[in-house]
Amino acid sequence: MIAHILGLFIHPTDEWRAIKDTRMTLAQAMACVLVLAAIPVVCGFIGTTQFGWQIGTSATVRLSTASASVIAVLYYIVIVTAVLSVGWMIHWMGATYGAAQSLTQCIVLAAFIPVPLFLVGVFQLAPILWLNLIVNLPALAYTVFLLYLGIPVFMEIPAERGFLFASAVLAVGLVGLVGMLAVTVILWGIGVAPVFVS
After folding, report:
1. β-pair partners for 53
2. How far apart are CA 109 and CA 19, in angstroms?
3. What is the pLDDT along the chain (198 residues), one digit of tens a residue?
4. How many domains does the chain have?
5. Residue 169: how many CB atoms within 10 A of its CB?
6. Are 177 and 114 in contact (CB under 8 A)?
C-alpha cells in the first residue's frame, strides 16, 4: 500500500498501471480505505477536542469529547461510504463510456483517487482555517488530477473518452458533497449538532 501511495506522487501514470495490474481484492482495497480514512478522522477528533480553534482574538473553542466522538464516527462512515459509492458509480457508468471493469477494480480505483485528501488529513490536528485551506486546496487539485489520469488507464479507454468519464465521476462526487451537506444540516436540526466547550 505504501509503495502505491508513494508511486501516485512520484510517477502517477505508471503507478495507476501497477495498481491495475496488481488485481487487488475487494478486501485489500477496503483495508487501504479503512486505514487511510482513519487519518483525517483521528486527527480531526484530537484537533477539535484537545487544541480547538480560535477566530481572531476570541477565546479558543473546542468540541466536547462525546460530541466529537459521534461526529468522528459519522465522518468515518461517510468517507468509507463515499469511496464505495464512487466505485459503484464508476462501474455503473463504465458501459456508457465503453469500459468494462469489475466492480472490485472500480472500487480499487476509487480507493486510491482520494489518497492526497486522506494524507493531508493529518493537518486537522491543528484546526486552523487558513492552514487547512492552504494544504487542502493543492491536495484537492491533485486528487482531481489523479482522477483524470487514472480513469483512462484503469478503465482501458482512450484519453479523450477518459476525460469525459472522469468529468462525469467528478460531477457525481460534487452532487454527493452537496447531498452530504444537506444531511449534515438535517442531523444538526434533529439534535446531532456539535457541543462546544471553552
Report:
1. 61
2. 8
3. 789 999 999 999 999 999 999 989 999 999 999 999 999 999 999 999 999 887 777 788 899 999 999 899 999 999 999 999 999 999 999 988 988 889 999 999 999 999 999 999 999 998 888 888 999 999 999 999 999 999 999 999 999 999 999 999 999 999 988 988 888 888 888 877 788 887
4. 1
5. 21
6. no
Find, among 6, 46, 29, the residue nearest to 126 by Cα. Answer: 46
List the beta bridge partners of residue 62: 197
Instruction: Look up the pTM and report it.
Output: 0.91
- Nine-digit cell string for 85: 459509492
Domain of 92 in residue numbering reads as 2-197
Do residues 16 and 156 lie in contact, with contact meaning Cβ atoms separated by under 8 Å? no
Q: How far apart are CA 198 and CA 193, in angstroms?
A: 16
